[in-house]
């Protein structure tokens, strides 16, 4: 089988690695790809250009397209390629609204009884500002509708903070909602669906803040591990039965069956779970810890999702632990320099997997080309062993300005 993976991050390198390594694929092209993927398999096109994607599929005789990031899904790449009779893994444009519009997701959750915090809608800056001036209880959470690349949510601990966010980010036609703040521990539960059935993966936990101790600005994710013990077996069943299954059934009733990866951002407090948001694709860096532990062939699951045959599969994971730590460019998530030479990749132990993200291959050298640069990943029998392995090896890799968090998985195991 020949695959085309759309995207350029650590998640896409991991998907490509997995498809090749478990025998799902004979060849995997990645568009546009990165420095971790052999140059002859990187296709320099923009995944938003559906015509170009189709052209490559025909030229390279691609059997299946796998979409990494949310943007092409939300703008309808699955509908477009399906019409052209090119098999593609992921949700339709309408089903991808679960990520594309937080308000749509909220309405689906409310309609189908999925646990999530109570909310109140607003249209336009003035109406929300006038409401904010009347409420006294903080924190509250303000969410802008629509894709915002992680910048559309404000957890406001005071009226001033709430006012500032709304003043800076809302316009007269903005659609915004406020929801109750929930205090708890976050985790991600991803499920794979064929539109009828959904099967959960083991839970993972991301680390969004730039620095140790969850300090500093929000990022795309600085590291992850799986399984996350905050979602024990009982809670995982609870997420399946109270969240994933009702959403899949609901979307079918709405006439927009959901196929692909449904990612639920969950907040756990005691035995209570609530959904913070949905994503409609693998998380980055969650994919980098889930896929190495998956026992099934990834290609079998993708095919079963596309053809509606997932009920015949049993999703299985190795009873092991995985951890991934992101090496980032100095200054990220703010401004940073690119083009730094990365050294030490050749000295990494063979049981470590280094997924590339913001890298570029040039004249046989690997240079930085993004904020999140590499994902250093290890699997072991215990989480402690996996963490030791990663942190022993990670210092062998270096580029000017590089930094990483040294406390990934701290919620599950005490600090080193
Ligand atoms: N209702 C809530 N209660 C507490 N924290 C929240 C709530 N909603 C969002 N957050 C915090 O804000 C972060 C971002 O919100 P999320 O809905 O995941 O949006 P996005 O990932 O698109 O920025 C969450 O990871 C969580 O830390
Ligand atoms: Mg989120």
What does this structure look like?
- The protein folds into 4 domains: 88 residues, Rossmann fold, CATH 3.40.50.20; 63 residues, ATP-grasp fold, A domain (Dna Ligase, domain 1, 2-Layer Sandwich); 128 residues, D-amino Acid Aminotransferase, Chain A, domain 1, CATH 3.30.470; 74 residues, Phosphoribosylglycinamide synthetase, C-terminal domain (Glycinamide Ribonucleotide Synthetase, Chain A, domain 4).
- The N and C termini lie far apart (44 Å).
- 47% of the residues are buried.
- Helix 1 links the parallel strand 1 and strand 2.
- With 416 residues, it is of the alpha+beta class.
- The model has no long low-confidence stretch (mean pLDDT 96).
- The structure holds adenosine-5'-diphosphate and magnesium ion (MG).
- The site of magnesium ion has 2 residues, from loops.
Task: Produce the secondary structure layout.
Elements: E1 2-7, H1 10-21, E2 27-32, H2 50-59, E3 64-67, H3 70-74, H4 77-83, E4 88-89, H5 97-100, H6 102-111, E5 119-123, H7 125-132, E6 140-144, E7 153-156, H8 159-169, E8 175-180, E9 185-194, E10 198-200, E11 205-206, E12 209-211, E13 215-218, E14 223-226, H9 233-253, E15 259-269, E16 272-279, H10 286-290, H11 298-307, E17 321-328, E18 352-356, E19 359-362, E20 365-368, E21 372-380, H12 383-394
Parallel strand pairs: 1-2, 1-3, 3-4
Antiparallel strand pairs: 5-8, 6-7, 6-8, 9-10, 9-15, 11-14, 12-13, 14-17, 15-16, 17-21, 18-21, 19-20
Helix pairs in contact: 7-8
The chain binds adenosine-5'-diphosphate and magnesium ion.
